[in-house]
Amino acid sequence: MGVLINKSSPIMPNLRPLSAQLAKKAADELFEKPERIDEDLAALRAWLAKCPHIKSRTDDQFLTMFLRGCKHSLERAKEKLDMYYTVRTALPELMRNRDPEEPKLLELIKMGAAVPLPNTVTPDGPRIILVRPGVYDPSKYTIQEVFRYNTMMSDIMMKEDDNLVVAGQMGILDLSNCTMAHFLQFSPTFVKKATMWSQEGSPLRQKGFHYVNTPSGFEVVYNLFKNFLNEKNRSRLYVHGSNLDSLYEHIPKAMLPTEYGGDAGPIQEIVDAWAKKIISYRDYFKEEDQYGTDEKKRPGRPKNADSLFGLEGSFRKLEVD
């Protein structure tokens, strides 16, 4: 006997259920219709199967992040997914060989130069990430090594954190103990790569960046970053100097770690919990190395570091005698 299939009930995708508040935000701001997700996921998979150059994760949760990041526009989700893997493949120094047990990387993980804070301002609020470059010694670690740790943290959050995926992310950049040596690591080349990774190559929505404890010399790097940002992200930059009261107007004091007068507990406890989590993802990061784009197979023009970041061009003419 054949099995009767009820055509009217859609197959439910294998997704973490959103909280009521985040589900409402997804519906209102991202135009999410749960009954349509499965159909869109099938369309994304069918498209990926026809893209000879992309090797992608295809689980429901991963692909849904692109639908949400593109307000459920299927065409934009395809573009974003292609760009996500294109940028990552063009940045092997940030995205490959991310073994959390490699000694130098493990030191950076345990230092926690960046860490997501445990609480959000409202149940449907963006995830807040605290970045503290002053904790590492720039003569010992390259900015690429530090950033590789950031990309690991970001990948885990994209996999686990519904606030991040639905509501976006907000950064606090604390520049205490930053020296000129830190700032000199931010070459225009690196800044362009980093902003492209977080802006074009990411499905996440940026909800603002707050700079605190800014030393002199900071303006140079700040202006450099600003130049590479799009208009929307540029309008969401806030410089508070050493005035934490003006930061509290945007991010309530209670959200912040003890060291910033808040109730989120000591920073080191948050960092230690994250270090444990990152180490537990060791196999995942190993697996990640197999995903990306093969530009030799891309229909049309290949995209590489040169075409994406336009960095080689400016040096070429110097080599002509």
TrEMBL record:
It comes from the Eukaryota. GO terms for cellular component: membrane. One of its GO terms (molecular function) is phosphatidylinositol bisphosphate binding. Pfam families: CRAL_TRIO (PF00650). Residues 290-321 are annotated as: Disordered. This is CRAL-TRIO domain-containing protein. Residues 102-268 form the CRAL-TRIO domain. InterPro entries: CRAL-TRIO_dom (IPR001251), CRAL-TRIO_dom_sf (IPR036865), CRAL/TRIO_N_dom (IPR011074), CRAL/TRIO_N_dom_sf (IPR036273).
